[in-house]
């Protein structure tokens, strides 16, 4: 087993345990809500964003008990976004991670409310006094998470993505990069910077992590575009070929398969270069950068 694979699996197990504790089962009238939340949270996935939180925190020797609430929170925000993206009013998907999407397993109202609950609980977790002893750090984490998840970040990127479907002309490369820096990149950027925030670090080291994150965020989206174009539905656990059919703005549509792959490889090289100040401590993050463009789902 590779070093990265083992680290990802260990992280996933730890994050699942934390999420299960944060989202208990209920025997009350709200039981369906909690069931829908847990169904989507526990449905599998790479847990890449919490892994980036924990690994960036390890760069600065941040105790795991301070990093895990942020790791769980970012997975909640990510899962909420997937639940809402899958809804009929958005991407209208039936499968997610090889299982029925939340609104198919339950119903649309339950899916919407489960997403709402996960988003708000994420902020509850990182704002709690036991999440970090420094209130300034807790406040900065809340602020940065809000910016990444909201209109300046992921939600705004989703709006641009929907606009691309109705646009009279395809988006140019600069516009697609801005779109994906928000829709996909914002949460990845938050995840990579979180360790520095938790450690009270700023300046050059945080700037390196930001540039690293922006590079792998774009590479991640290009890999997704390539998988949607070339991938296998069984391996992906969701429908493929939908982006082109819907007229979405993609790197493959603009650059072609070979151009998109070359762009992703250049971004990975740039990301790896940004980790030089961390020496051997940055090895897992270097492995992540390469994994992003080599993955099959």
Keywords:
1% strand; two-stranded antiparallel ribbon; mainly alpha; 2 strands; 15 helices; Farnesyl Diphosphate Synthase; 72% helix; globular; 297 residues
Could you characterize what this model shows?
The chain has helices spanning 3-22, 31-41, 48-58, 64-85, 102-105, 108-127, 135-149, 154-166, 173-183, 185-198, 203-230, 233-236, 242-246, 251-274, 283-294; strands at 95-96, 99-100. It has 297 residues and is mostly helical. The protein has a single domain (3-294), classed as Farnesyl Diphosphate Synthase. The chain has a two-stranded antiparallel ribbon with strand order 1-2. Strand 1 and strand 2 form a beta hairpin. The radius of gyration is 18 Å and the shape is globular. The mean pLDDT is 92.
Low-confidence stretches: none
* Biggest β-sheet strands, sense, barrel: 2 strands, antiparallel
What is the N-to-C order of secondary-structure elements (H for helix, E for strand)? HHHHEEHHHHHHHHHHH
Tell me, rounded to a whole number, the average pLDDT.
92
Number of contiguous helices: 15
Write the CATH fold name.
Answer: Farnesyl Diphosphate Synthase
Q: How many strand segments?
A: 2
Q: Which word captures the global form?
A: globular
**Lateral arrangement of strands in the main beta sheet:** 1-2
Task: Write the CATH architecture name.
Answer: Orthogonal Bundle
Helix content: over 70%
How are the elements arranged and paired?
Blueprint: H1 3-22, H2 31-41, H3 48-58, H4 64-85, E1 95-96, E2 99-100, H5 102-105, H6 108-127, H7 135-149, H8 154-166, H9 173-183, H10 185-198, H11 203-230, H12 233-236, H13 242-246, H14 251-274, H15 283-294
Antiparallel strand pairs: 1-2
Helix pairs in contact: 1-3, 1-4, 2-6, 3-4, 3-10, 4-6, 4-10, 7-10, 8-9, 10-11, 11-14, 11-15, 14-15
